[in-house]
């Protein structure tokens, strides 16, 4: 099976449509959506409807911190721009769409794979995996050999040997990485809707569960249209401008 992994979509319709098209061309059989479907960009209603449709077709979907903020109210650590967008987003969604977000789980596990937006050890507290120590803590919190998380907005791959030795690297887009099950792996596919590694191209990854390979992808998309929508909606201009720089 080829499992397409998408995280941090952030109401960016143009980026997600481009990623879905590429995933289809690469023969993806199933989809895992690692949260943050809303926030930052101007198409939250379209995005939630799309996620609902994909879930009805068998996709895995996990709640992110921005989704949680729409349901529960923003946490204190959300930046001011994000808080403004959350308030606006609530006005754009129907009660049924908000209920859908409220019903999303914080984690999911199946077929030896673990899925969470932030991490495995405290998935509803939204700690970032920024260092090897956080990656080890997350991998130790699950028995799954392959874990997938988002939240960080930059692609990264960690692996842990049976002796407890950890290593990490930034993957090269389009190059398949062997991820055999005798090690434990934690993959951060990067952000679809708001990359933050200096590259404006949208991120996604493809896990081949038969060959045990993981391929990270970058997809150019029409970020000018996304930025124009953000500005037209009256959202903070910086959220549109930053898309051109991937920061």
CATH architecture: 4-Layer Sandwich
Query: Which stretches are low in confidence, meaning pLDDT under 50 for 5 or more residues running?
Result: none
Count the DSSP helices.
8
Q: What gap, in angstroms, lies between the N and C termini?
A: 33 Å
Instruction: Summarize the helix and strand pattern as letters.
Output: EHEHEHHHEEHEEEEEEEHH
CATH class membership: Alpha Beta
- Tell me about the largest β-sheet: 6 strands, mixed
- Which percent range fits the helix content? 25-40%
Strand content: 15-25%
Whole-angstrom Rg: 17 Å
Q: What is the 3D shape?
A: globular
Mean pLDDT: 96
The strand line-up of the biggest sheet is 3-2-1-11-12-9
Give the CATH topology.
Purple Acid Phosphatase, chain A, domain 2
Family: Belongs to the metallophosphoesterase superfamily. YfcE family.
InterPro entries: Ap4A_hydrolase, Calcineurin-like_PHP_lpxH, Metallo-depent_PP-like, Pesterase_MJ0912
GO cellular component, one term: cytoplasm
GO molecular function, one term: phosphatase activity
């Amino acid at each position: 099976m080829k499992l397409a992994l998408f995280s941090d979509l952030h109401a960016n319709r143009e980026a997600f449509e481009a990623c879905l098209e590429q995933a289809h061309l690469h023969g993806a059989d199933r989809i895992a959506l690692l949260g943050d479907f809303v926030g930052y960009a101007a198409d939250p209603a379209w995005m939630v409807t799309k996620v609902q449709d994909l879930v009805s077709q068998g996709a895995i979907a996990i709640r992110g911190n921005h989704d949680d903020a729409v349901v529960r109210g923003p946490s204190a650590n959300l930046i001011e721009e994000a808080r403004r967008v959350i308030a606006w987003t609530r006005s754009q969604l129907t009660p049924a769409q908000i209920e859908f977000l409220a019903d999303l789980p914080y984690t999911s596990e199946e077929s030896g794979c673990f899925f969470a937006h932030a991490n495995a050890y405290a998935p509803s507290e939204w700690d970032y995996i920024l260092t090897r120590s956080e990656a080890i803590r997350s991998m130790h919190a699950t028995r799954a050999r392959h874990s997938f998380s988002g939240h960080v907005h930059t692609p990264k791959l960690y692996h842990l040997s049976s002796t407890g030795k950890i290593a990490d690297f930034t993957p090269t887009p389009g190059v398949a990485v062997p991820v055999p099950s005798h090690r434990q792996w934690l993959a951060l596919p990067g952000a679809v809707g708001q990359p933050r590694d200096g590259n404006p191209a949208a991120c996604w990854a493809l896990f081949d569960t038969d060959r045990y390979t993981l391929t990270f992808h970058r997809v150019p998309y029409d970020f000018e249209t996304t930025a124009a929508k953000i500005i037209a909606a009256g959202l903070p201009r910086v959220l549109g401008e930053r898309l051109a720089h991937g920061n």
